[in-house]
Amino acid sequence: MPAPFTHRQLEDAFWADVRASSRKAGSGYTFTFEGCEVRREAAPLRSNSRKSVVAWRSNFFVKPSEGEPYTVGDDREAPNRGNDPTRNWGLGRE
Fold first, then answer.
1. What is the pLDDT of residues 57-78, one digit of tens each?
2. 55 touches 76 (CB < 8 A)
3. Residue 38 forms beta bridges with which residues?
4. Which pTM value belongs to this model?
């Protein structure tokens, strides 16, 4: 079994596969990387108002030919004030 992949390795492999194929890069996209079946799921990170998408977060589900499947997650925080407790977004001002 290959060593667990990093999120960056899988993201690079994903985009290389998308460029090499004619398939669209939607959520649930499955590809093969170094003998492993890999599925990518993506979800939007929304603005404070929830009206626009400011970034995307992706998770990869890796199924090696031998061994246990595992998940490689994107641990970035959303780039908005909603994640900043000192700004108290939407909770009312005290």
1. 889 999 998 889 999 988 777 6
2. yes
3. 31, 62
4. 0.73
